[in-house]
Amino acid sequence: MTDHIHIIDNSSVVNQNYFKVAWVRNEELKKQISLPRWLWLCILEVMFGGELLENFVTTCPDNTSPEHKESNNEYCMANMLNSHIPSGLFTNLFRKHLIELLFYKYYMQYLMIVPVSEDCLHVQNNKIDLTRSPFWFRKKLLYQVIAFRRVYIVSAIAMNLMVDVTVFICSSSLTITAITAVSLEGLRRLLKV
């Protein structure tokens, strides 16, 4: 008699490199956003991406979009980009940049959010005014939330390590390096306020 029954699931596994998806611009975005701006959005995403994802998750379950019955329960309720950003001291300070982050990364790169109507995406005077343009979160992509959160955590650790190594090489002091590491982690946690 065996002490347990083996469980087998040979179904296909989602095998996607989320680091590449998060940090490498697709071809369309290369035409629309400069590399320095993209890097800034990546830094903001490491700092605030977890909260944006958490907001998607908490506002999504069982909130089927009443605007589109034919959506077949595919989307959560539509929200303005501003409403997809949780309110907080630092999120409010960086709100305009976070709106760009949602548009360029979560809409154009990850395809996690989609506008209720494509008609709202008109460019005038080098601006896209999305004031009256709600976006849906695509429910079928909820499974990606954990993978992206892991990307943010690993990226924050890697950035902290790079800074710590640089400080240690420049100062040769473990004390200064430890103070820098604690300060960076404290700053990262303070940004959650």
Folded structure, characterized:
With 193 residues, the chain is mainly alpha-helical. The chain has a domain at 18-144. 53% of the residues lie in helices and 5% in strands. It is built from seven helices and four strands. It has helices spanning 18-23, 27-32, 35-59, 89-93, 95-109, 144-171, 174-190, and strands at residues 113-115, 123-124, 127-128, 135-137. Strands 1-4 form a two-stranded antiparallel ribbon. Strands 2-3 form a two-stranded antiparallel sheet. Helix 3 crosses helix 6. The protein is globular, with a radius of gyration of 20 Å.
Number of strands: 4
Mean pLDDT: 86
Principal-axes geometry comes out as globular
- Number of DSSP helical runs: 7
* Gyration radius, in Å: 20 Å
SSE order, one letter for each helix or strand: HHHHHEEEEHH
Distance between the termini: 56 Å
The largest β sheet comes out as: 2 strands, antiparallel
Sequence stretches where pLDDT stays below 50 over 5 or more residues: none
Structural class: mainly alpha
Q: Trace the largest sheet across and list its strands.
A: 1-4
Fraction of residues in β-strands: 5-15%
- Please estimate the helix content: 40-55%
